[in-house]
Amino acid sequence: MFFDLHCDSLSACFSLNSPHIFSEKESKILAIFCEDLPPALREKEMEKQYEKLKTALLNQTLTPYPNLGQRRVILGMEGASGIRNTSTLALWQKRGLKILSLCWKSNRLASGWECKKDTGVSAEGVEFLNEMRRLCIVGDVSHLSKRSAMQTVEKAEKVMATHSPFYTVFPHKRNLSQAVADALYEKGGIVGITPYPPFLGGDMQAFLAHAEYGLRRYGKRFLAIGTDTDGTKGIFCKELNIRRPLSPQLFQALENRFGIKTAIRICYENAAEFFSEIFE
Question: Are 116 and 102 in contact (CB under 8 A)?
Answer without folding.
Answer: no
